[in-house]
Amino acid sequence: MAAVAGLVLVAELAAIGTAGAATASISAVGSVAQHSGTGVTTLGLSPQHVGDLLALAVKADSSSATVSAVAGGGVSSWSRAQASTGYSGHDLEIWTGVVTAAGSSTVTVSFAAGVSSTETALLAEEFSTTGTSWAVDTGAGISNASSTTATYPKLTPSGSGELYFGYDAIAQTGAAGSTSGFSYAVTTDADVATWDTAVSAAVQPTAKQSPAGTSGGVAILVASSGATTPPTGISAVGSFVSKDGTDTTTVAVTPEHVGDLLVLMVKVGSSTVTVSSVSGGGVGTWSRAAGPYTGYAGNDFEIWTGVVTSTGSSTVTVSYSASVASVYTGLAVEEFSSSAGSATTWSTDTSAGISNASSTTVTFPKLTPASSGELYVGYAAVAETGSAGSSTGVSYATSADADVAAWDTDTTGALQPSAKQSPAGVSGALAVLLVATG
Fold this sequence. Notes:
Blueprint: E1 8-14, E2 26-38, E3 42-45, E4 52-60, E5 67-72, E6 75-84, E7 91-99, E8 105-111, E9 119-129, E10 133-151, E11 162-170, E12 173-175, E13 183-186, E14 192-199, E15 206-225, E16 234-246, E17 250-253, E18 261-268, E19 275-280, E20 283-293, E21 300-308, E22 314-320, E23 328-338, E24 345-363, E25 374-382, E26 385-387, E27 395-398, E28 404-411, E29 418-437
Parallel strand pairs: 1-9
Antiparallel strand pairs: 1-4, 2-9, 3-8, 4-7, 4-9, 5-8, 6-7, 10-15, 11-14, 11-15, 12-15, 13-14, 16-23, 17-22, 18-21, 18-23, 19-22, 20-21, 24-29, 25-28, 25-29, 26-29, 27-28
């Protein structure tokens, strides 16, 4: 849970924007991640949800080594929220950025001066919200005289329920404080990060150090607002359809309702051939929701989604990045409706792939929804003959070539379904969580 000499501290929140009147609930998610040492400029992490915010606090043991840019981490655009060089020749900063791609990624920090001989470090923590927008309220830095108490900046929120996020660089050995409502994380070089997800009045948390020494910190308040449109009830519609074989590029479908979501699962018997586009099927625009995943036995798995704009008999056509004239391919489609009908807005939450050792059990990826009532859809390719599993709440369908699709239309907690195959064999799968609002 920690970082070393110079520190880049990252925390994940949810979609940034301008604070409004409606207050949302904020919570911490997952575990702290970190990387530190001389010349450290990158940190591996895995943001869980598109729309979350990574809050990146930076410490470098040089006041001239300020941050010039931040990239990666599943974020398209980063912004500096607060900076301070008031403590003992250090640069302390906090940057923020909205997650646009979940899953494994790397944050890269560029500095205004070389850091090859400067101590730097990176630390990450994730936060979530029930709201729809985020805005930085205020921030400050602080430099403290020698003491066994390490004080953070005092900040006063403009509204209620704001997130306080701070980092203290400490001369000696830091330890968690006891300020009511605050959580603490001690880094490997004995600095201390802290946060409170429900700040409604002026706060100035403290940590500890032993023996007495100087300290300095930086902190921000972030507001989340806007009521999230509650998820709608989701249900499977019609029959599961699949088609497979060498050079399979089309599958016939008959979507039933405008506004429904078609989920297309694609398997390519080559890790170097991916899907370049999808068209037809009564869908105006198709988008890749998961993949390409190439971690299983030289295959490519992908999941594409599209909202139905016209019903009736149609053909889904898949174009690939290279010829599949001699490549085995498989296509499978299931249609889903929501209780909001044609007013439904569909979005992707998160996704993952998995490769399994030989077994009679076929395991799908474990996914955790950002909200209740999400749609889990997975596709597992099996080496032998696949069949339905018995995971609670999960429906199964077996493809023509004995692979297995699985879905749960009301996913509220972490879910990792399983299917079966006989005899034992290897398997691999890709899955996605989808959200319907309206």
